[in-house]
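Standup notes
- HV: blocked on the assembly model, inputs below
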Amino acid sequence: MLSGFLYRNLNELRRAIIKNVSRKRGTESIYFKDAFHRVLAEDIYSRTDIPSLSVSHFDGYAVNSSGTSEATTWKPVKFKVKGAIYPESEMENLKIHGGEAYYVTTGSLLPEGADCVIPVERVKHLNRSEIEVFHSFKPGEYITLRGEDFRRGQKIFSKGHKLRSIDVYALGLTKNFRLKVYRKLRASILSIGNELTDEPKDSEGRLSYNLFFYRLLMEIGTEASILGVVDDDPEEIRKRIREGLRKTDVVLTIGGCSVGERDYVLRAAKSLLGFKLVARGIKVQPGRVTSVSLVEGKPLIMLPGHIQSALSGFLLVAVPLIRFMEGYPYCLPFKRVKAKFAWGIKLKKFKPFIKVRFVETFKVNGETVAKPLLGDSSLISVLTGANGFVLIPKNKDIVKKGEKVVVHMMNSCC
Amino acid sequence: MLSGFLYRNLNELRRAIIKNVSRKRGTESIYFKDAFHRVLAEDIYSRTDIPSLSVSHFDGYAVNSSGTSEATTWKPVKFKVKGAIYPESEMENLKIHGGEAYYVTTGSLLPEGADCVIPVERVKHLNRSEIEVFHSFKPGEYITLRGEDFRRGQKIFSKGHKLRSIDVYALGLTKNFRLKVYRKLRASILSIGNELTDEPKDSEGRLSYNLFFYRLLMEIGTEASILGVVDDDPEEIRKRIREGLRKTDVVLTIGGCSVGERDYVLRAAKSLLGFKLVARGIKVQPGRVTSVSLVEGKPLIMLPGHIQSALSGFLLVAVPLIRFMEGYPYCLPFKRVKAKFAWGIKLKKFKPFIKVRFVETFKVNGETVAKPLLGDSSLISVLTGANGFVLIPKNKDIVKKGEKVVVHMMNSCC
């Protein structure tokens, strides 16, 4: 065990975060066209009846259905056609009485007195202004009634709803042109290491993970930004973290958190005003040096420098924490799939830790199989092959071939 | 049945599209940082060994493992520490012999002669330059070997692979700074109707579906653009379709395709040079007036004006067609979920047609239940409630309560 680390288990961490992290988030008013995938901060009510008047659902003839009640194939009923109505027609003074009809196209409003539409293919045209009808029709047939889609004042979406494409359309349709949504959570990310660079073409340095985690942060819905790469220099790290905390709601660091003399990030963070340690290490491997602190109430998540360790900390700590700040329950939000383990593995080290193993799932004879991808926590190739991960409980030192496991799917996310 | 429509079934349509639609797509060279979610148009090979030299996986002491073979807790072995190596250290002339060690931190390269690392917590520090070791270590322990992650010349991604966040990182790491990807398919969309507007605030018009389908086109990965709203004027429609065909790879129209005098889009399309009709109607309800044509080889998909009909045509025709153009097999790509139908429904009309019914799925006692959302094909409220759809085979006129159905999930897409 590394000295100085306390290794909280995930339940303790969950409780500590729920207790210490604030969920208060601002709201903003936006135009409905910009609302795709935003989360409502208010209930939404229709501001109008949709449709605003009864509307023809077909091309045909608007009549009063009572006039068709006696119509049969051997004794048709005649209607006099008074004119034609189109979706854009002015509707003032358009009215029918018994025995009268208007030609209407799909989407046209109905004239006063009409309560149904007879589709054009179900009438016989005697001449330009007379038709014959051979069946009886009921009120409401082939029309959409005023307010049938949305009634004025009807609640159509609840606070907390994440808006989809069709929902954005419904907002515009019901005249909800401006709406209150939660401000996106702002997250920033900083990589620490003398050997790192964000511009690999211009230098011999190793590419930092900033871009990778930036993408993941965007995919979970935050407004992400990159604070750059800094050397192993506590004063410089402190400055950048402070910059991140000033501009954003949560800061993630990657690397610079080994035990001993090279534990730069924690040293830097401790010197910030209002620093409070929430967890120094988690009982998860890889990822055990992941730490969480608050600086004047804002979370600072310190991820390890190895990619699998950093991703493990990101998936198990940063994702639920950020989603919690956004108003969701604190939990692992990944889609779960049951699978059979492709072959047996032994887990000798870190007995009291939860072990994360990245897997690739595929179907064999209709069954989902999870192939564990093993290798040093610094290997990228393990992750380019993976589409999910399994959590192996503490003290479990073997997973057998064919054993049922639950895979958390990373989908397009990782 | 509407006159003039031939109603192809979906298999006939599939064959006609595979036969007539070209899959040729351009490629472009892009910077790796812009490659997220793009599809590779070439195989990718690592241009370097990763890691470039063997690397320490821990903070500890780099030694030659042979010197530890005799070490035990009661008879430890001493090593002389020659200095310290950090990830950014210059490695020239750094070498160890038997009995010598270098202090190395995580991520540091190994000096010549070293083949393993002893973690710092597993040695005893006698003084500043001497340590004791109590166990034997094997070659390769606590290090990552040169090329273990990616070997120079190793194929890491295949042509056709859609790049995820971690893959983009691997591109940069392996010095694949520029790469060839398929050009995104460009799709444009046009709504037809005198009563429509894209700017509902500025007019009394009804909001067109352009923005809705624009979002769906973006979500299936095309570069979408909106051609606007045009009146029911064949000459104006013709001009806009031609503009769309000039700028983009596929054009979608919504509305303007009723039977008879108001069949503006087909009339406009027919007057374009190189026009060829592929399907005039599909055996699907709602959505049956959906038509497909080619204009000098470019697809023009004509969707009906009612929202459910248009969406049905989009999901069953436009999505597989566009994906086919992008190189995927022609199929319905939606995730399928088995569910029990929540209550029985009768289907009286359109017997020889496949019926599309939008549903909302939810879990009851661990089982997925699909609740059918019924109502006129013009109702938006049916779709704001739906998260999937079922396809009911032709000639089937009843779905019983509790009957097993396959739900195609629309996810965030619709």
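- HV (later): unblocked. The radius of gyration of chain A is 32 Å. Residues 60 and 120 of chain A are 4 Å apart (CA to CA).
- Next: hand off to the docking folks.
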